[in-house]
Design brief:
By secondary structure, the protein is an alpha+beta fold. The protein contains five helices and three strands; from the N terminus they run αββααβαα. It has helices spanning 4-24, 58-70, 72-82, 98-123, 139-144, and strands at residues 34-41, 47-54, 90-95. The protein has a three-stranded mixed sheet. A hairpin with a 5-residue loop joins strand 1 and strand 2. It is elongated. The termini are far apart. 19% of the residues are buried.
Length: 145
């Protein structure tokens, strides 16, 4: 069994090889909008999961997934040629949802910032209902300090 450092190095190499092969070895025009974002390899170096994003709408994403499934053999052959391991790992392609989740999170942060600004605008010029310092203190502590 290989160590995780070797698996991480192999994953980075596979990421580069697959990205280059998408541009050169795969002749399908549907893969032009694909960007390889990450790769993970199991510690036994038998399976590789490759994460990708696609620029475009849902139809372009579906076309890219179909093109990757169709060209999986060609890409595995390229990985086998360019990676020095005894057995070429199987490839699995997963659409990377991090950019979508990040944009959703940014939208939520913009809404929260707008609400904070609204509350700050309402609070401007207002005073507290009670004392400015609502905590009771012993007079002796104030004199000692």
């Amino acid at each position: 069994m290989a160590d995780s450092a070797r698996a991480a190095k192999l994953a980075q190499r596979i990421k580069v090889v697959v990205a280059q092969a998408l541009g050169k070895a795969v002749k399908d025009p549907r893969v032009e909008a694909i960007t390889v974002t990450d790769a993970r390899v199991t510690n036994d170096l038998q399976h590789a999961t490759i994460y990708y994003t696609v620029f475009g709408d849902d139809e372009a994403k579906a076309d890219a997934a179909a093109a990757l499934a169709k060209s999986k053999g060609v890409l595995r052959k390229e990985v086998g040629k360019n990676v020095t391991v005894r057995l070429t790992p199987t490839l699995e392609f997963v659409a990377d949802e991090i950019p979508v989740n990040a944009s959703n999170l940014e939208a939520l942060l913009r809404v929260a910032k707008a609400k904070d600004a609204e509350v700050a605008a309402l609070a401007e010029g207002k005073t507290h209902a009670g004392d400015a310092d609502p905590y009771k203190r012993d007079e002796e502590e104030d004199e000692e300090a």
